[in-house]
Amino acid sequence: MQTKKSNLFHSFSNLEHAFTTKYGGVSQKPYDSLNLAWHVGDDAQLVETNHELLAKALGYEKNSLVHMKQIHSNLVHVVKKDDDFFTPKSCDALITNKKNRPLMVMVADCSPLLFYDDVQKVIAVAHAGRAGAFSNIVKKVVDCFMNEFACEPQNIYVTVGASIGVCCYEVGQEIYDEACAIGLKYAVNTRDGSFYLDVGKILQTQLLACGITKKNLEISDECTCCKNETYFSYRASGVTGRFAGVLMLK
Fold first, then answer.
1. Contact indicator for 141, 76 with CB cutoff of 8 Å
2. Residue in 118, 227, 207, 106 with CA at minimum distance from that of residue 165
3. I need a surface site. Which of 18, 62, 74, 200 has the fewest CB within 10 A?
4. Residue 220 β-bridge partners
5. Cβ–Cβ < 8 Å for 113, 126
6. Angle, to 10 degrees, between the axis of helix 137-149 and the axis of helix 199-209?
7. Domains in the chain, please, with CATH?
8. Cα separation of 201 and 147, whole Å?
9. Where does 165-242 show beta strands of DSSP type E?
10. Per-chain mean pLDDT for the chain
11. CB 231 within 8 A of CB 84
C-alpha cells in the first residue's frame, strides 16, 4: 500500500499517521483503487475492504476508526465513547485525546489537515475546501484544543496533505467577490482574465494567526489535480474516489 508520511509528525513515536494515495485497494474504475468513501457511487463492500486493508497497514482496528459525513461546514466534533465506524457524524473536524481512536478526513482536492499537541496529547483532523477556508474552520479547531483540552497554540503541530493548488483551482467572479468581501483577496491570483484560488495560502495565514508557529506547520506543495495519477481529484476526474488523512494516538 502506497501512503505518504509527514516529515513533521514522523518523529513522534506515539503517533500513527498517513496520507493515503489511490494505490493499494480493491475498487474498480473510476474509483481505482483505494477509494475510502461510500457516497461517491462505489461498491460498499469494496470500500469496506479498502478500510480493512488500510487498518491492517497502519495497525488499528477498522471499527475503532472515526470518520465524518463531511458537509463543508466549520463544525468540530469532540469524539465520544459511542462514536463508531458505521455512524459518522455530520461535521468537518474531529478531535480526541483517546488512545487507539484513529481519526480520518477524506478528500479529493480539498485540504486534509492533521493536528497534534505533544504536551496535552490531543489530536484532530479537519477537512478544508473553499467553504472551510472561507469560514475559518482551522480557528474553530484550535479554539477547541484550547477550550476543551487546555492546549496552547504554540504546542500544536499541523500538517496539511496534498490538495488542489492555485495552479488548477479556477473559480468564478462570484467566488472572487466573496473572497474580497471577507478579506481574502490576497489568496486569489488573476491569469488571463480568470481567477485562481490559493486555499493553502488562506489556511497558512489562518493557522499562523491562531498562534501556530511556522516551525510547527507543514503544508504539502503537491497539487491533486496535477497529480491525479496519484491522488483522487474531483476537478480532474469528476466521478472519482476519496483519499484520506489518518491520525491516531498510540
1. yes
2. 227
3. 62
4. none
5. yes
6. 30
7. 3-165+200-249 (3.60.140.10)
8. 26
9. 170-171, 188-191, 194-197, 217-219
10. 97
11. no
Unique residue bearing C-alpha cell 480568470: 194
Q: What is the DSSP letter of 93?
A: E
Please name which of 58, 57, 93, 53 lies closest in space to residue 74, comparing C-alpha atoms. 93
Distance, in Å, from the CA atom of 123 to the CA atom of 137, rounded to the nearest integer, reads 15
Average pLDDT of 7-23? 95
- What does the block give as the cell for 202? 488562506
How far is it, in rounded angstroms, from Cα 121 to Cα 99? 9
With pLDDT > 90 as the criterion, what percentage of the chain qualifies?
A: 99
pTM: 0.96
Q: Which three cell numbers stand for residue 25?
A: 485497494
DSSP 240: -
The C-alpha atoms of residue 76 and residue 247 are separated, in whole angstroms, by 16
Residue 1 scores a pLDDT above 90: no
Give the DSSP letter string of 9-56: TTT-TTEEEEEE-S-S--PPTTS-S----STTS--HHHHHHHHHHHHH
Distance CA 248, CA 250 (A): 6
Q: Note the Cα 153 to chain centre separation in Å.
A: 19
Q: For residue 123, how many C-alpha atoms fall within 13 Å in the half-sphere facing its CB? A: 24
Q: Which residue in 158, 162, 129 sits closest to 142, CA to CA?
A: 158
The residues with which 112 forms a beta bridge, in sequence order, are: 127
Strands (E) across the chain are located at 3-4, 15-20, 68-69, 76-78, 89-90, 93-96, 103-107, 111-117, 122-128, 156-160, 170-171, 188-191, 194-197, 217-219, 243-249
